[in-house]
Amino acid sequence: MGAGPNGLTAAVMLARAGLEVIVHEAGDAPGGACRSGPLLGDNISSDLGAASHPLGVVSPAFRHLQLERHGLRWLHPEVVVAHPLDGGEAAVVYRDLDRTAEGLGRDGRAWAALHRGVTDRWDEVVTSVLGPLVQIPAHPVALAAFGARAVAPATVTAAALFRDRRTQALFAGSAAHSVLPPSHLLTSAFGVLFGAAAQTTGWPVAQGGSQAIVDALVAELTDQGGRIVTGHTVHDLRAVQPVDLIILDLTPHQVLALEGLDLPTRYRKALRRWRYGTAVHKIDLLLDGPVPWKDPQVARAGTVHLGGTLEEINVAERQAKAGRLPIHPFVMVAQPSSIDPTRAPEGTTVMWAYAHVPFRSDDPRAGERVMNQLERFAPGLRDRVLARHDTGPTALEAWNPNLVGGTIGGGALDGLQQAFRPALQANPYATGVPGVWLASSSTPPGGGVHGMAGYHAATRALRHLAST
Question: Which top CATH class is 5-75+208-275+401-467?
Answer without folding.
Answer: alpha beta
